[in-house]
Structures are given as C-alpha cells and as structure tokens.
Task: structure prediction
Amino acid sequence: MSANSDAESRMKKSIAALKDTFAGLRTGRASAALFDKIRVDAYGDKLPLSQTANVSVPEARLVVIQPWDKALLGEIEKAIRASELSLNPSNDGKVIRISIPPLTGERRKEISKQAKAEAEKARVAVRNIRRDAHDDLKKQLKDGGLTEDAEKKAGEELQKLTDKFIAEIGKVLEEKEKEIEEV
Result:
C-alpha cells in the first residue's frame, strides 16, 4: 500500500507545481506572484526580486515595488523590462510603479493556451506517477509481497486516486481560465 501513498504525495506535488506555474501567468489583475521569477543583478549575484524589494499590490491594476536598497532601483527596473511580462515600470527615484494594462483578446487567448498546455503537462505527470506506482505494485506481486487480490485492489485505488487528481487539475485550470477572461 505504500506505493499508493507515495503516488498520492507525488500527485499532490504535481498539483502544487501547477498552481505555482499558474500564479506566474499574467492576467488582467495585478499580483505580486507575477514577479516571483524575476531575478535582479544585485551585489554581484542574480537574486530573486523578493529578496531585494517589497512587492505590494495597493490597487487591482497597480503594483508598487519598493527596494530595500535605493541603489538597486535601476537594476530592478531593468530586470522587469527584460522579463517576458511585457510591462513598463515607472521609476520615481523611491519606488517603481507598474500599471497592469487590461489584456487584449489575442493576449488572453495566448495565456489561456499556455495555461492549457501547463495543465496537460500536469496530467501527464500524474499519469506517469500512476504508471510508476502500478509497476511497483506488479513488482511487489512478483516478489511475493502482495497477493493478486491485494494488488488488484491497490490498482483500483490507484486509479481512483489518479481520477481524483486529474479532476482537480481540471478545476484548477477552469479557475485560471475564469481569471484570465475577467476584464
């Protein structure tokens, strides 16, 4: 039965990774998570933006980035411009303000397509985990650690577990698509 509990924990990690990826997808609403992948040249190293500045969202379409060291303002601005977010930061010498423009219909479709591709990757990962666990069950049966009935029952439980996580991926994708379509 440990094969199923191991598979379940790995499947949960796949869902968490998908949610993490979705947090970084830009929607029409401002979010501090958009900036999680941005790295800033600071102190001779590439640091995550969150380690060089405070990122806040005071309004639905505005992000304010307040660096802890004012000398990094230019580097933070450069890193944001170089990112794939297509945002235009404005630097007033103290903080960086970024207005999040509403998405165009074309851009919404691109992001939605990207979200579907990420969800499909997560589904494939869950199915691969099921396959690995099923192989483990067969090995246990062959080695005499499981009876045929126990292996069959564990296989059925594994399939139910897989179906549950595939459905959860569908729900997560549906929520993200609603968020993308919001104006």
